[in-house]
Amino acid sequence: MRTAICERLGVEFPLFAFSHCRDVVAAVTNAGGFGVLGAVAYSAEQLDTELSWIDAQVGGRPYGVDVLVPGKTEGPRSTIPSEHLAFTTGLLQRYGVPYAGTLGELGERVTARGATELIEVALKHRVGLIASALGPPPPQMVTMARKAGVPVAALVGTVEHARRQVAAGADLIVAQGTEAGGHTGEIATMVLVPQVVDAVHPTPVLAAGGIASGRQMAAAMALGAQGVWCGSVWLTTEEAETPQSVKRKMLAASSLDTVRSRSRTGKPARQLASAWTAAWDSGEDSPGPLGMPSQMLLAESAMAYVVRAAERGEAGAAELANYFVGQVVGQLDQVKPARRVVHEMMEEFAETIERLSRITE
Amino acid sequence: MRTAICERLGVEFPLFAFSHCRDVVAAVTNAGGFGVLGAVAYSAEQLDTELSWIDAQVGGRPYGVDVLVPGKTEGPRSTIPSEHLAFTTGLLQRYGVPYAGTLGELGERVTARGATELIEVALKHRVGLIASALGPPPPQMVTMARKAGVPVAALVGTVEHARRQVAAGADLIVAQGTEAGGHTGEIATMVLVPQVVDAVHPTPVLAAGGIASGRQMAAAMALGAQGVWCGSVWLTTEEAETPQSVKRKMLAASSLDTVRSRSRTGKPARQLASAWTAAWDSGEDSPGPLGMPSQMLLAESAMAYVVRAAERGEAGAAELANYFVGQVVGQLDQVKPARRVVHEMMEEFAETIERLSRITE
Q: Name one GO molecular function term (chains A, B) (predicted).
């Protein structure tokens, strides 16, 4: 396909696949798309291992790495108030999930320092794109990527943020609508994308949020995007590491079954509505979510217990279990190989452009 | 343009313009689109006068009428609790607007009975479409329209409602995303439209929500819609009866300045965020909005005072003033004749299809 971004990144079909699973990244890249590995859950050593594996799979085809650089956080290592720990323990107990309250180390990497380490590792591999969610890319990240000749992409949910990201050195903007999974703003993709495209011209824009089919990809490109950034659609693929208990909920969910909640990270993020989000967001005894990264630290620690119990088939745990996913979850009703998802999108995309041409003949 | 709906309704360019203003309806129809008059604010006699005027303007070109048929309401004539009347009076007082608390007669027509009267009037004129928002079309409405050979359109925000509307006899579905102005659901246009198109096939679908430009129209049609239904974009046209104080707020607003609130009708409706929505939705002393039609009766009565004061240039009143509008309000920054809006959409639509064809060549 001929968009500037295809030429710049050497990608055949401008479908960017965000996934925490290396198998999805490799499969999409090999199918002609552009896989982007979400690196937030990895240590520098683990990331090195994952990228070496991907390098071996994709035979030089381009792929990217995404790190979470939060704009504003509470600081590197906030403490969890005992009230919040007690609420979490009590909540899990009500649903039959024992919780030891070990907070783990996750919060550490959601800082500019943690992100920089991951970027250093990424740049040692053959990555073709570094993406940063949440905040403007730190100057050091831009400098490092520029030196390595690797473009920097930034996710935004408003026109104002898009302008700020470009000023901070982003080479590519991902305009993400409110219907997207994960951290997301309030403006829908249909409204956001054309505004961002016009505001940052000639910087190329990818559209995110509400895109999991060829028709939706064609719509995004009609809005002026040069490609699309998809996350949710990979969560129900064969390759995805999504726990079976969560995958089942996603396959059964309608588009009404997601909620934008602070309960998993401290910032508004769209996810499956579950007993967890309900308890934090509207439970009478809820202390309210903490900020980022404290709430993320607390939630990830608790959710590890929840998911283990849900995988053992415990019904209470299954009610609590959830994960970040967009409103397109209502379209996902079948487990498919990631390669097939790419091929179906390519086919439907081509059919859609063909149909639109016929309408206007 | 060649879509089934163009042929069935005899329309050149499938841009449906919902407006309460007869001048907009006539201008859009004469420019090659399809104007739809929102009839909820009219008595049967007034509607008759408006439609006679439109008939005289459009020379036989097709246009439609929209009535508000609520699915569930509190009953025909609920009383307003004194607490709610006192809150309203106090709120307006705080912003310097005297309020006499006369409730008027508006609530009367938001019933199936009121809607039927309006439809009887409409069918005496040369209307080419009857649309019903909120509930499934009442059987009598479908029977009357069928007898007159006029198709019935129904607005929906979920797949489930779309199926129900088709079962109740709707000939055309308007799938409206959460970014739309007025009564709207939670699912974004990008996600909702393809799901509705697939669920009600072969019933034709128009897309609504987030559409105010040719790019957005092309995107909607990529999603599978046979045309688009736009409301917000007409509110800042030259012809629109939007009060100047509200028009100014719309021209200045960004896409972040709307809110989905029950404060104007009792059901969630997207509108400009203002001191009115803030006070009802999150004011400490708010009694919470009533149901429909009580809240609508109360709000419309109060807003009449607010708008009169705002038009006189009173600053407090201008803070309260608002109106239903979608997230596209962020794109509206210039007053234009409705005809020019249609022509610009036609032009950008054609350019977009052309651009998409080139990309895939």
A: monooxygenase activity
**A348 to chain B, closest Cα gap in Å:** 10
Task: Burial-class residue A202 by CB neighbours within 10 Å (0-12, 13-18, 19+).
Answer: exposed
pLDDT at B4: 87
Mind telling me how many Å the CA of B219 is from chain A's nearest CA? 4
Tally C-beta pairs within 8 A across A and B.
154
Q: Model pTM?
A: 0.95
How many Å apart are CA B233 and CA A93, to the nearest integer?
Answer: 52
Element spanning A47, H or E: helix A44-58
Q: Measure the CA–CA gap between B53 and A253, rounded to whole angstroms.
A: 49
Q: Two tokens at A148?
A: 């390595």
Chain Cα centroid distance, residue B249: 18
Picking from B161, B190, B201, B217 by the largest number of A CB atoms within 10 A of its own CB, the best residue to mutate is B190
Q: Is this complex's ipTM strictly greater than 0.85?
A: yes
Structural domains of chain A sorted by starting position, each given as residue range(s) with its CATH number in brackets? 1-73+110-235 (3.20.20.70)
- pLDDT tens digits, A17-53: 999 999 999 999 999 999 999 998 788 999 999 999 9
What's chain B's average pLDDT?
A: 92
Q: Which amino acid is at A210?
A: G
Span B313-331, pLDDT tens digits: 999 999 999 999 999 999 9
Please indicate whether residue A324 or residue B71 has the higher confidence score (pLDDT): A324
Compute the distance between CA of residue A203 and CA of residue A212 in angstroms, rounded to an integer.
24
